[in-house]
Amino acid sequence: MKTLYLDCFAGIAGDMFIGALLNLVPDKKILAEGIKKIRALDPEEYELIIEETAKNGLAGINFDVHLKHEHHHHHHRHLADIEAMISSSELSLTVKREVLRAFSILAEAEAHVHGTTPDKIHFHEVGAVDSIIDITGAFILMEALGWPRVLCSPINTGSGTVECAHGVLPVPAPATEYLLHGLPVFAQGSPMERTTPTGALLAKILADGFSAIPNGKIIASGFGFGNRESDDMPNALRALLIDTSSETEINGLVREKISLLECNVDDMNPQDYESVIEKLFAAEALDVWTENIFMKKNRPAVKLCCLARPEDVMKFSEIILKNTTSHGVRFSEFDRLRLKWKIEEIETPLGKIHVKVTELNGGTLRKVPEYEDVKRLATLHKISMFEARQKIFR
């Protein structure tokens, strides 16, 4: 599996995102060719600037949209105008869908800030040619990378104030702050806007989780630069393309990081745990179980436990808090050694069945039939589970 890791140590913006990803794609012309598919955008209005440069001693790519006619920069558009532009384009259906979803979420954020409805929003700077290109270009490049899973670091918002169409506002600007709800943020460095609405939007839509750099092998990397200057840190976003399918092996065992989430519950209907567990497994938890415990005053209670990938801790915490009566979730990170395994389909006297094949030092250690398959075949042949297993193993 390929994972795109966004290191937002100095924030994130649309131009920074595109600059960073241009380091990773095989051909930088993909971006310009993709933007040309938006026929409603006149090529005479803009010029795409892609230059390899350096900031604060770091080499990277500076991406910018040069507007040939300045009045286009303040051309206001409604959501319906942008939807028509994208829908009539020759972009792929997936890119169209993602761009339309992005502008819909952005319209909701702007509407919330201004106390109106999304259909009445004038997008101001975000509706200008350069921002349409930033958002659309981001998804064009994601498609060029094969839509990898995206993980993100906590986001540096910056501090101080920023001047925009509505005057001088605190950082993060209201629309940016609204889009960052639920995402891990911090403020570091000299006062300036380090995360823009477009950057916050891309992080919100693309990130599957927030974590440190995941285990794996780095395939490619690069910095994308913004147009602001800061002496203490570069106005840059780092993107890492990581092969997270690679496994660290120790004596034939796989070594990996896992997180254990736990909560103690003493006031919940026991029948409701089934629904919680189903939702956790549906969200791809590694394992889920319950333990009987005793709390203060010797009250009997249940400890709900969930094993997950470290980058998914926030996702599973939210599921647990929404679906149990617990007010909190504690979590710890562990190193785990496990056997290598794969799923194979085999033919048995009862029919086809999936088996989990575990391996050690290159050899097969054991084969275990999947429970649901055994249950299905036992029901089909009207025999007991015990009989079904006997016939399968034989």
3D architecture notes:
This protein is of the alpha+beta class and 394 residues long. The protein folds into 3 domains: 2-243, no CATH class; 253-338, Transcriptional regulatory protein pf0864 domain like (Alpha-Beta Plaits), CATH 3.30.70.1380; 340-393, no CATH class. The chain is built from 11 helices and 21 strands. The strands form 6 sheets. The protein has a 7-stranded mixed beta sheet. α3 packs antiparallel against α4 (93-114), α8 packs antiparallel against α9 and α10 crosses α11 (385-393). The radius of gyration is 25 Å and the shape is globular. The two termini are 36 Å apart. The model has no long low-confidence stretch (mean pLDDT 91).
Describe this protein with a few key phrases.
3 domains; 394 residues; 11 helices; seven-stranded mixed beta sheet; alpha+beta; five-stranded antiparallel beta sheet
Instruction: Look at the helices and sheets and give the structural class.
Output: alpha+beta
Give helix % range. 25-40%
How do the strands line up in the largest sheet?
Answer: 2-3-12-13-1-4-11
- The overall strand count is 21
Give a quick account of the main beta sheet: strands, pairing sense, barrel closure. Answer: 7 strands, mixed
Evaluate the radius of gyration: 25 Å
Number of domains: 3
* Mean pLDDT figure: 91
How far do the termini sit from each other? Answer: 36 Å
Query: Low-confidence parts lasting 5 or more residues at pLDDT below 50?
Result: none
Shape: globular
Total helices: the number is: 11
* Beta-strand percent range: 25-35%
Structure at a glance:
The chain is of the alpha+beta class and 394 residues long. It contains eleven helices and 21 strands.
